[in-house]
Design goal:
Strand content: 15-25%
Helix content: 25-40%
CATH class of one domain: Alpha Beta
Largest sheet: 4 strands, mixed
CATH superfamily of one domain: Translation initiation factor 3 (IF-3), C-terminal domain
């Protein structure tokens, strides 16, 4: 047994393990340590592996149920069969037996090509992530008595955000005696909303939030539509190589074409 003076500070023994800082490790000199390690390895080693639980579906011989509700490769219901018969059918069809509903009684298993199924699932997940558009809320802060030049600059930022398909959160910050004049901030927000009404609309009306007044402006066009429109414009613009090739066209060919287009005197 390890003397207590050798143990780290805060460590204690628990059923053949040395517990220190929430981490359990087997005590090599404890006679119960070998039994604990053996039991952990026999039980699947979840504790030794950090409690990792696999989320992969069980296939073929890994299915532990004695019988399953079998579904054919085209979705047809075959019925409840023993696991040995299901594996035999899968082997004859050169397919895998995949447990698709392990919590059912009996579990539901389907005959499929598991490798092809995983590949198609990964492709669909990648396509869905590609088509997803993340909604971003930009924030612009103003003062009730903002300078006209600063107001123009802030308005330009709001217009740029709306053109990109992002929402804009406009915050009016009140200080000192300005808090007694909320109508100044309300009029400023109304002015900004009317100035950018071609690009966005007021999604959330102005409301007081402590010392601030907040309004949210949403774009008329979604971000995905904005990207598609920008990509279409980029394709319609001729490439520099095509423009250079058109510039190198012989002048005489253009002259001949012009002469052929103009009729001569009668």
């Amino acid at each position: 047994m390890t003397p207590l003076s050798w143990l780290p500070r805060g460590a204690h023994r628990s059923r053949g393990f040395l517990v220190c800082g929430g981490v359990r490790s087997p005590c090599r000199d404890d006679p119960r340590a070998g039994d604990a390690v053996a039991a952990g390895s026999a039980g699947g080693g979840d504790e030794a592996q950090g409690g990792h639980i696999s989320v992969e579906a069980r296939i073929n011989e890994r299915i532990r149920a004695p019988e399953v509700r079998l579904v054919g490769p085209k979705g047809e219901q075959i019925g409840i069969v023993s696991i040995s018969d299901a594996l035999k059918l899968a082997q004859e069809a050169d397919l895998d037996l995949v447990e698709v509903a392990p919590t059912a009684r009996p579990p539901v298993a389907k005959l499929m090509d598991y490798g092809k199924f995983k590949y198609e699932s990964a492709v669909k997940a990648r396509e869905s992530r590609k088509n997803q558009t993340q909604t971003i809320v930009k924030e612009i802060k103003l003062r009730p008595k903002i300078d006209p030049h600063d107001y123009g600059t802030k308005k330009g930022h709001v217009e740029r955000f709306l053109r990109a398909g992002d929402k804009v959160k406009v915050t009016i910050m009140f200080r000192g005696r300005e808090q007694s004049r909320p109508e100044l901030g309300f009029r400023l927000l109304q002015r900004l909303a009317s100035d950018v009404e071609e690009l966005g609309f007021v999604e959330s009306q102005p409301k007081q939030d402590g010392r601030n007044m907040i309004m949210v402006i949403g774009p008329h066009r979604k971000k995905s539509e904005t990207k598609a429109h920008t990509a279409g414009q980029a394709r319609s613009v001729p490439s520099p190589r095509a423009a250079a090739a058109a510039a190198r066209e012989p002048a005489e060919s253009r002259t001949a074409a012009d002469g052929a287009a103009v009729p001569g005197p009668a």
